[in-house]
Design brief:
The structure is a single chain. By secondary structure, the protein is α/β, with parallel strands linked by helices. The chain has nine helices and 13 strands. The protein has a seven-stranded mixed beta sheet with strand order 5-4-3-2-10-11-13, sandwiched between helices. A four-stranded antiparallel beta sheet has the order 6-7-9-8, with helices on one face. A two-stranded antiparallel sheet has the order 1-12. The two termini are 22 Å apart.
Length: 274
């Protein structure tokens, strides 16, 4: 089979559209069984101004549920695992929360949580400091998660942004055990551990016994943090970015295919359900 996956970074506009070119998409799967990894926000639900408003439609839920009855399906999200489990509401799925730090496979013990627990005191301290420096800035939103802290600036004005960034820098300088990860209008501070969504996917493939040639690992995502998974799957799996090339002309990706909207993600998943 021709290798359609090892292409490196390219502009989103140059990535083939999975629905428009469904034959090429099917060819890339090569008759193998998809092992499907899904991001949540911006992939299964549209991006919203406040994280608690990102609710999955009944139709999307039914599509993912039907797919999971036929194929291995995992949700890999930046959210806390209990949070995303509740939002998706399909108990049979595999869930990885906190960018893959916190993994749960139905019927098994959670993986990885103990490594992270030791960071809780550091995160508590930084959370308090972030509230101190960011709460006075209009629109700034500090979101404490179990294994990270998100500083959202979607609602911060351009005028206030330099103040937001400076305040964040000040706190980060005090917290050498944490690293900053960029998302969509959000900076996320997480433990400085060599772990990301890509490593999480490789780990899950191994744990779930999905490493054989009969499987094709697939990752669906929209954000910068999903690029770690797209990159890991280069030459090995097939990835799909949910991004409208017209909305961000500069955006580059490692993804194999693209779709423009969340509705198209759901449409694609429905179309590939056996
Ligand atoms: Mg996302």
């Amino acid at each position: 089979m021709a290798d359609t996956t090892a292409r490196g970074l390219r502009l989103v506009a140059d990535v083939p559209a999975a629905l428009a070119d469904y034959d090429a998409y099917t060819a890339a799967l090569g008759g193998r069984t998809p092992a499907i990894f899904l991001d949540y926000d911006g992939t299964l639900t549209p991006i919203v101004s406040r994280p608690e408003l990102a609710v999955m439609s009944d139709e999307s839920r039914a599509t993912v549920d039907a797919l999971a009855k036929k194929l291995p399906v995992a949700v890999v999200s930046g959210r806390d695992r209990p949070d995303v489990e509740k939002l998706v509401g399909i108990e049979s799925l595999i869930f990885a929360g906190s960018h893959g730090f916190d993994i749960h496979v139905p019927g098994r013990e959670a993986i990885g949580s103990d490594v992270i627990e030791k960071y809780t005191p550091v995160l508590d301290k930084v959370d308090a400091r972030l509230h101190e420096v960011l709460d006075p800035i209009p629109g700034a939103l500090v979101e404490r998660k179990r294994f990270s802290i998100a500083a959202h600036y979607r609602l911060v004005s351009d005028e206030d942004y330099p103040r937001f960034r400076a305040a964040l820098d000040e706190v980060e300088a005090e917290a050498p055990d944490l690293k900053e990860k960029l998302g969509k209008k959000v900076f996320e501070l997480q433990p400085k551990i060599d772990w990301d969504k890509g490593k999480c996917v490789l780990h899950l493939l191994q744990v779930l016994g999905l490493e054989g040639d009969e499987y094709v690992p697939m990752f669906f995502g929209d954000d910068v943090t999903d690029e770690d998974a797209f990159r890991e799957l280069q030459g090995r799996g097939v990835s799909v970015i949910c991004a409208d090339p017209a909305a961000d002309l500069e955006r580059k990706t490692y993804a194999t295919f693209r779709v423009d909207t969340v509705d198209d993600v759901i449409g694609l998943l429905r179309r590939m359900t056996p």
